Each structure stands twice: as C-alpha cells, then as structure tokens.
Amino acid sequence: MEIQKKLDRFFEEIQKDEFLQMRGLGNEVPYFIFDYEPEHELIVRQSIRYFMNRTHLNIKVLNLLKMVIELFDDIGLEGLKQFEEEQGTEALFDALRPTIEEEELVDKIAEAAEQAQIIFITGVGSVFPLVRAHELLNQLHPKVTNVPIVIFYPGTYTGQGLSLFNRFESNGYYRAFSI
C-alpha cells in the first residue's frame, strides 16, 4: 500500500469511536504500531503535522529524541559530548541507559496520557539504540492502559517482533496491534 493511502486510512481509523473507546481489543493494552518504510520518514512527519493542525481530537505528539534531550539537559549536553569523546559512544550509552531504565521517560509519557485522547510517539529511529521501542512498550504496560498509544515505527512490525529500519531485529514483541 502506498504510504499516503496508508496514512489517510490511519487518520480516518483513529477518529472512529471504536478506536477512541478502545473497543474490540480483547483485553489487550491499547498499543498500536504504524510501521512504514524508513525512506518515508519525512512524508510521515509532514502528514502528522498536517493532521494535527486539522483534528478536533486531543492528541499529544511525543518525540522521543526531544524527550531524551530534555532528560539529559540537567547533566549538560556539553558534558555528554566530552564524555563520549573521552570514553566512546558505547560507554556513553551504558552510562545513560539507567536513566531511561529508571522509567523517567515512561513517567513523562504516562503524565501526557492523563490529558490526552491519543498519544503519538515519534522519533523512534532517532534514539536507537539508546531507547528501543519494544522495551519502551514493555515499561509502559503497567503505567498506561487507558489511552491508545501509537508508535510511528520506521521499519517493520510483524505482530511477533519489530525490525527497525528493516535491519535491526528486536526481541520478540507481540502485544501491540498493527495499524
């Protein structure tokens, strides 16, 4: 399916009462993955902006890269840059992962969900490998189940697992719905 048709169908679907009221999920969490070919990233971003300017729905768009940068502003980005230059990228990731794993990112998403009808999560590719979509979804399970969450995913979701950029396989994840 060409990307614009897929986006149009998606934006139509999420405005339906059945979606907003999370009917037909069979007691599963209301998590959805909109997967797309990575080369369509700019089209997807533009379509989200276009839709957001025209919708009456209360949708919060959360960009993971912006959220991660905000989390680490306290440390100071210059300090992070210097740490990476001295210790290497892998050491930097190892040092930063505990902050993500301590659920600060998840708490921010949960806070946004309290005031929204739908959450859109973007920027998944920009924060890889520091933040991985399947880990984020697993951490969200106990905190957010009352609002549909849509992750815009540059890659493939098979219903059994995720493949970022159609190159990097994740550990199996099967609790989200493909949309």
Automatic annotation (TrEMBL):
A Pfam family matched in the record: BrxB
Protein name stated in the entry: Uncharacterized protein
Organism: Geobacillus thermocatenulatus
